[in-house]
From TrEMBL:
Gene3D superfamilies, sorted: Peptide deformylase
Signal peptide: none
Organismal lineage: Bacteria, Bacillati, Actinomycetota, Actinomycetes, Kitasatosporales
Active site residues per record: E178
Native source organism of the sequence: Streptomyces kebangsaanensis
EC number: 3.5.1.88
Originating gene: def
Protein name per UniProt: Peptide deformylase
Length: 216
């Protein structure tokens, strides 16, 4: 894709469907590549780093500095072979996450959400999925964790425009996981004490496959 087309693509919001949700399944490869090639991969912060254990600051400036951060996040996500990445996972105290994640039907979703908030689901729509979950900030560790198999997130895109994102299955888990990060929660915080201890043991016994920031 020509550079001019890439710049135009980043100038506006993603299209929305008839219900107002972003259509984040189109031109995924082109959009992810355009972001990533502008970015610099950064090491991943791991559990114990203070930035991961507190609520991040709201994004209020949607200028060039945020655009560069998003590009760096996409680059870092690709290096770590992740499907979602929150800003505090590369040490930045801002409420923004990126994702490049398939859903259970195999559709690829790529996008950016700033200042996300999970929409509370009514009880009759809460079907739990207890699949395994992992986290780039708890490298090499996995544990089953029950989460709703459908999620909706509201927020803003990288230009400050309002957005609504929804997902099912694995993508729903991603949306919940990344939103949690920005409010100071890791997935292991939702485990039992025994399961959390086991996840930290897994992490201690294995080497991460990507650069991480050591906790002093």
């Amino acid at each position: 894709m020509a550079q001019q087309d890439t710049d135009q693509q980043h100038a506006g919001v993603l299209p929305v469907d008839d219900e107002g949700y972003v259509v984040d399944t189109e031109d995924c490869e082109e959009r992810e590549t355009a972001w990533r090639e502008r970015g610099t991969s950064r090491p991943i912060t791991v559990v114990g780093n203070p930035v991961l254990h507190k609520e991040c600051r709201d994004v209020t400036d949607f200028g060039e500095e945020l655009q560069q951060l998003v590009a760096d996040m996409f680059a870092s996500q690709r290096t770590a072979e992740g499907v979602g990445l929150a800003a505090n996972q590369i040490g930045v105290d801002l409420k923004v996450f990126v994702y490049d994640c398939p859903d259970d039907d195999g559709a690829r979703h790529v996008g950016v959400v700033c200042n996300p908030k999970l929409v509370e689901l009514p009880a009759d729509r809460r079907r739990l999925d207890d699949s395994n979950e992992g986290c780039l900030s708890v490298p090499t560790a996995y544990a089953p964790l029950a989460r709703p198999d459908y999620a909706e997130v509201t927020g803003q895109d990288e230009r400050g425009n309002p957005v609504k994102v929804r997902g099912t299955g694995y993508f729903a888990r991603c949306l919940q996981h990344e939103t949690d990060h920005l409010y100071g929660y890791l997935y292991i915080d939702r485990l039992s004490k025994r399961e959390r201890k086991d996840a930290l043991r897994q992490m201690a016994e294995n080497e991460p496959r990507y650069p991480v920031v050591a906790n002093d």
